[in-house]
Amino acid sequence: MLAAYAFHESGRPGRNAPLLLVLAAIGIQLRLLCNMLDGLLAVEGGLKSRNGELFNEIPDRIADILILLDAGVAVSHIRLGVTLGWTSALLAVLTAYVRLLGGSLGQKQDFGGPMAKQHRMFLLTVGALGAAIESSLRGTTWSLYGALVIIVLGSLLTLVLRTRRIARRLQST
User: How much is the pTM?
Assistant: First the structure.
């Protein structure tokens, strides 16, 4: 929520965009840290429950959507900025869907990239930090816009590659 809020507010006129973009980057990293700790407790700590998968996936999808949509709001002053946010959010959900679909078809879940969650969030963090520097020096946020473009293109490729790998494994069984 911190990352989404900071991205959203950074796109509004009169806000301290550099500080908000740094907060967005921190929020993204805190989200990943919490996700990692949750997984470690469940798997390594033996605290896995029957509902664990359910309550692990739903918050991840909500976070993906909110963070990516609001990253689009942060660059809404640039042509197609909001569209990039929407598209990247949709593709993030679709990559997770294809992974889970493969699992539901009896295949090992494919977490491969090139634009899996950790790659998207790393790139978005770099884009936010770059935009913070850029915003303080020039008043622009092209770094974040570029990160969203790469996320969209990389997510499309990830969807194609995951689908092909799942299809190949299904054909070989």
Answer: 0.93
Place of tokens 């359910």: 54
pLDDT digits (tens, 9 = 90+) for 135-163: 999 999 999 999 999 999 999 999 999 99
Handedness of CA 41, 44, 46, 49 (dihedral sign): positive
- Least Cα distance to 17 among 110, 108, 160, 134 occurs for 134
Q: Which of 3.40.228.10, 1.20.120.1760, 3.40.50.170, 3.90.650.10 would CATH assign to domain 2-172?
A: 1.20.120.1760
Q: What is the pLDDT of residues 3-41, one digit of tens each?
A: 999 999 999 988 999 999 999 999 999 999 988 888 788
Measured CA angle at 116 (ends 86, 83), to 5 deg: 10
